[in-house]
Predict the structure.
Amino acid sequence: MDLHPIEASPLHARRERVFLVLAGLFLGTLAMLNILGILRFIKLGELETATWGTLTFAVAIGVLPYPVTFLCTDLISELYGQARANAVVWMGLLLNGWVLFILWIGGVLPGFETIDPGTGSLALDAAHRAPVFFEVRTFAFGATLASMIAYMAAQFTDVWLFHFWKRLTDGKHLWLRNNGSTLISQIVDSVAVILITWWVGGLTGVLDADSPVFGQLVLLIITGYLFKFVIALVDTAPFYYLTRRLSVYLEIDPYAEHREESTRPESVH
């Protein structure tokens, strides 16, 4: 394989390309879930209660690929360190802003839609819906706003906790930092994304107007979190497997930084 002048060695090129795959999967998944986000909710079941009325168990389709983003940041954290993981998280925030900008300018520029002469706004069809782009745009704005806030809180929590437990255990107990960081950060994400989505009106049609809102919101938070909880536990196996295989393939020792820290004079107590 021919190397580009900026690639110091075949090993350096290999490491950078694996990082590109992990970062690309993270950012691509993030963009996809923000567009799909709350366009559809998957109905898992209903429960009739005397106090809360009909409780609906549902998860947004945007939740389905979301655990992949935590697997990617955990792998980047383990193999490439906290600084690179944080850089990818910041890039994800910029990507969210870029998606919002394109959605905004795409709706502002003149198109071929019919304008209602009475209101000066877009003409609605027989089902009282705007053209498809504007329907998607409205939902995506709400989903992306909720996602941006929840994403920043959850991802930085995940990265910080991952390295907190890695330092605390001197790089041991891989399962602890993988599951612990993800499970706690997913609580932050689940609460934030449901409450913000509800606040911007993105749960219209999902919530039952005849039942108390609070109970339904709590149920959506719990349902979404339990889904993420199960997926987080399931991804422990691929995380272990990929960490070991990639550590050999990339010739990276994930524990080297902790051995170096323990040998520094200032670290001796």
Remarks:
- Residues 10-258 form one domain.
- The longest strand covers residues 41-49.
- Residues 179 and 232 are 6 Å apart (CA to CA).
- The mean pLDDT is 75.
